[in-house]
Amino acid sequence: MANEGKVTNGEELDRLLRRGVAEVIVWEEMVELLRSGKKLRLKEGFDPSFPDIHLGHMVTLRKLRQFQELGHQVVLIVGDWTAQIGDPSGVSVTRPMLTREQVQANAKTYMEQFFKVVDKARTEVRWQSEWFGKFDLADVIRLTSRFTVAQLLAREDFSNRYHEGRPIAVTELLYPLLQAYDSVAVKADVEFGGTDQKFNLLVGRELQSMMGQRPQQVFLAPLLIGTDGSQKMSKSLGNYIGVAEAPSEIYGKVMSIPDDLIMDYFELLTDVPDEELEEFRQQLSKQTVNPMVLKKRLARELVTQLYDQEAASEADLHFSKVVQRKETPGEILEYRVSFKYLRTMGEPVRVPNSEGISPIASQLLEHPDISRLLVKIGLAKSRSEANRLIAQGAVSINGKKISSNIASLRSGSIIKVGKRRFAKIINTDETDKGDR
After folding, report:
1. pTM, whole model, 2 decimals?
2. From residue 419, how far is each of 177, 323, 399, 403 by CA, in Å?
3. Can you list the domains of the chain with their CATH numbers?
4. Span 373-393, average pLDDT
5. Which of 252-266, 279-293, 331-345, 410-424 has the lowest mean pLDDT?
6. Rounded distance, CA 62 to CA 59, Å?
């Protein structure tokens, strides 16, 4: 529809181009486009190296949704080619190449989570293989001839690795060029990304000019600091809050963020009006509000966005009962596992009594490897992480903290990890025995 995305109101422009925005290149051109009424093609690309999205990604996705609500078109690029090359973008390591099957599986999960925030009906999904599948060596050479090695080494992480004598694969140098060509292929008007993607997005702008297209605008979002309060949110650092996590887990993780991140999270991840945010800032500055009150509001806002108001209320109640009042939740997920699989110390511990060996103790009292159990039921990503949690006193069985990965565990025991995660363990060795 003509003029559907036209923006003439100054407040609306501020909402789009200032809140949750690190930089717009070029500001004046972006304003001109928004005032023109043209339906813009908004490019967002992702490499499905990992399947999950966290709140750090949500900063940009929320901005895309705002533009969609004005009638603009999101073009989601699935980087099925660049995922097989790997882009360090600030992490200064070479990522492993993925198989096509891994890419497709990750992309499926990614898009399910992407559309929790962005309107699917107003999104055009494109796979890089649509155009790169037709590329031959001559096309690659023509593309590389448009840029110099010096230009590519201007990228900070490449420059740092080069000067430190660390390897840079030629395939990595190709990454910015391939991402730039995506902009040409889909005729992007605006490309969105985090500040760590600035170099790549500018290469896209330059390549479009070389190939006779109007250069895209570059829309950079701030990098969200993770729950550790020091580094950007990242799955590899373990300081993330996933958009697909359970409502109670999202709520609980938000409650764990440092107080000095409260306002950043409100500004970047919610629609709470600026005037109200200013009140929050004043209250925090004057210490007239308990930061926990604001964190609860923030947690409810985020769970409502990703699920609904009912889920937010339930998560709020769960936090009050389980974390604040240290009650055991009414509903705990049950996990059926074989203690024989988990045991590392041989047969069940047998407890002698006056008549010899107690058959009840022999049947029920086991000493399995708890670190292996935590990994199996998904409460730890690895045995090393599980052992670290145990050493930190973060794991308890039936209300008693354990200090060793070898601990007494009975069928029906409740394991607690951290402040919020619970699991009820059912020994399938016993249930299978009863079935026979």
Report:
1. 0.74
2. 46, 6, 12, 17
3. 10-221 (3.40.50.620), 247-324 (1.10.240.10), 334-435 (3.10.290.10)
4. 84
5. 331-345
6. 6
